[in-house]
């Protein structure tokens, strides 16, 4: 942790760039290159169309993640053209996309991100609900099944199953340095993005070993989200996705006792229960890392277990899942879009929303937010992390959607976002 103190600030990373289409025919810029504005400031997007070969362009504007997109057709006069200009008096977001033929450029902006608050009310019995769930979980004696999964000089790795009130057990790969001293190692919990059968959904021994080797060594656990068996033939995961886990994010959404994310969060807590019972844990550092659904789990872990000291959450889901904006996209999985009793949904979802779970958390939060992300909206992530009380390092990225689709920004992103996040992780684990 020698270099960790330099991160103990609330940071908004500002990048100077323009969005350029793949054919370099459109350059889109805004008057605040970082995309972050204050109320009362004019938000201006300018397109340079010098190389565009079409006679007209289409400007698509999405305000506050509305399901409705304003579409404007403009004549291409060449040179620079202001395609959007507006002053906002309330916390707001805007995404501007300029299309010319087959090419496009897209950027996003957010106004007063530090003011966004949850779109739902925190239930009065929220704390009691989770206290009851935690008490029941910890009352269940921990049972651990493990078998050796990989061998590497100086490190041990196991395929682990932990019993849970779940209803499914927690399963993943656990790795650590051999012969480590008691109270000498931090914990790293790695959690996965949405899905069932894709490579990004499956726990791997090499992922656990990667984190076990960082810094001076770590107690590392790669947890799959669904309590699935590890290392199975592809047919096993195909069958789960097509059957039992099909549309899992909507299962039980009309009841807080049946909602799928309850089991997912309990598996998180059970894994932390196991990791903190290891004699090598230093008793101080617990770092949870994830992207998308994994990012949501990382934030949830910080809210559910206040021993979690830091999270690295990339475009996190499960944040402000029901928007206060009218006809707007909520944080994934956007339950307002489900074919379900919406009053029951409204009564269920807040118990599992990181915008409520994070209240009181003092964990350091490192968050990457895409300002054109329509899967995990920027306002929703801010609404969640604004509730936490610990230090925050926020990378607000105007050109990033849920994925980095505008590939000309790859090197920019790696230099200014990915590498700093990795430096944080490595420094934290020293």
Descriptive terms for the model:
globular; Rossmann fold; 430 residues; 2 domains; 10-stranded mixed sheet; 23% helix; alpha/beta; Immunoglobulin-like; 5-stranded mixed sheet; single chain
Helical residue percent? 10-25%
The Rg value, from CA coordinates, equals 22 Å
State the separation between the terminal residues, measured CA to CA.
5 Å
SS class: alpha/beta
The CATH class name of the largest domain reads Alpha Beta
Shape: globular
Count of the domains: 2
CATH superfamily grouping of the largest domain = Alpha/Beta hydrolase fold, catalytic domain
Strand order of the largest sheet: 1-19-18-17-16-14-15-13-12-11
Classify the beta-strand content into a percent band.
25-35%
Q: What fold name stands as the CATH topology of the largest domain?
A: Rossmann fold
Give a count of the beta strands, DSSP E runs of length 2 or more.
Answer: 19
Point out poorly predicted stretches: 1-16
Largest sheet geometry:
10 strands, mixed
Mean pLDDT: 93
Describe the protein's architecture and organization.
With 430 residues, the chain is α/β, with parallel strands linked by helices. The protein folds into two domains: 17-113, Macroglobulin (MG2) domain (Immunoglobulin-like); 126-428, Rossmann fold. Helix content is 23%, strand content 29%. It is built from nine helices and 19 strands. The chain has helices at residues 126-139, 205-212, 234-242, 260-276, 293-304, 342-348, 354-357, 378-385, 410-428; strands spanning 11-12, 19-20, 27-30, 36-37, 42-48, 56-63, 70-75, 80-87, 92-100, 103-111, 144-152, 155-162, 170-177, 185-191, 219-223, 281-291, 310-314, 364-370, 392-397. Strands 1-19-18-17-16-14-15-13-12-11 form a ten-stranded mixed beta sheet, with helices on both faces. Strands 4-10-9-6-7 form a five-stranded mixed beta sheet, with no helix packed on it. Strands 2-3-5-8 form a four-stranded antiparallel beta sheet, with no helix packed on it. The radius of gyration is 22 Å and the shape is globular.
């Amino acid at each position: 942790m020698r270099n960790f103190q330099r991160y103990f600030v609330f940071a908004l990373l500002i990048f100077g760039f323009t969005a350029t289409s793949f054919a370099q025919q459109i350059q889109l810029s805004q008057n605040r290159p970082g995309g972050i504005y204050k109320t009362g400031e004019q938000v201006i997007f300018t397109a340079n169309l010098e190389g565009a070969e079409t006679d007209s362009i289409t400007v698509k504007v999405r305000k506050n993640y509305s399901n409705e997109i304003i579409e404007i057709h403009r004549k291409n006069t060449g040179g620079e053209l202001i395609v959007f200009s507006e002053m906002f008096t309330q916390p707001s977001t805007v995404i501007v996309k300029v299309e010319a033929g087959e090419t496009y450029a897209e950027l996003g902006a957010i106004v007063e991100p530090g003011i966004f608050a949850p779109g739902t009310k925190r239930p009065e019995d929220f704390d009691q609900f989770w206290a009851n769930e935690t008490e029941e979980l910890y009352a269940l004696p921990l049972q651990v099944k493990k078998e050796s999964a990989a061998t590497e000089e100086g490190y041990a790795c196991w395929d682990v199953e932990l019993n849970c009130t779940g209803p499914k057990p927690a399963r993943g790969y656990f790795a650590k340095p051999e012969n480590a001293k008691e109270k000498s190692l931090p914990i790293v919990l790695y959690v996965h993005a949405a899905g069932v059968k894709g490579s990004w959904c499956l726990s791997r021994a090499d992922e656990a070993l990667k984190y076990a080797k960082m810094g001076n060594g770590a107690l590392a656990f790669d947890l799959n989200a669904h309590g699935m068996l590890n290392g199975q033939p592809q047919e096993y995961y195909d069958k789960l996705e097509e059957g039992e886990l099909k549309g899992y994010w909507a299962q039980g959404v009309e009841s807080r006792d049946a909602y799928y994310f309850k089991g997912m969060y309990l598996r998180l807590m059970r894994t932390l229960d196991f990791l903190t019972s290891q004699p090598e844990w230093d008793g101080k550092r617990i770092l949870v890392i994830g992207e998308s659904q994994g990012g949501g789990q990382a934030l949830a872990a910080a809210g559910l277990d206040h021993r979690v000291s830091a999270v690295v959450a990339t475009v996190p889901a499960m944040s402000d899942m029901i928007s206060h904006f009218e006809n707007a996209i909520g944080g994934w999985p956007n339950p307002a879009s489900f074919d379900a009793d919406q009053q029951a949904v409204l009564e269920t979802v807040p118990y599992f929303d990181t915008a409520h779970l994070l209240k009181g958390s003092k964990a350091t939060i490192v968050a990457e937010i895409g300002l054109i992300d329509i899967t995990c909206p920027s306002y929703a992530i801010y609404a969640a992390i604004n509730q936490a009380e610990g230090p925050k390092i926020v990378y607000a990225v105007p050109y990033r959607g849920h994925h980095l689709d505008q590939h000309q920004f790859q090197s920019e992103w790696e230099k200014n976002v990915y590498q700093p996040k990795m430096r944080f992780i490595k420094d934290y684990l020293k």
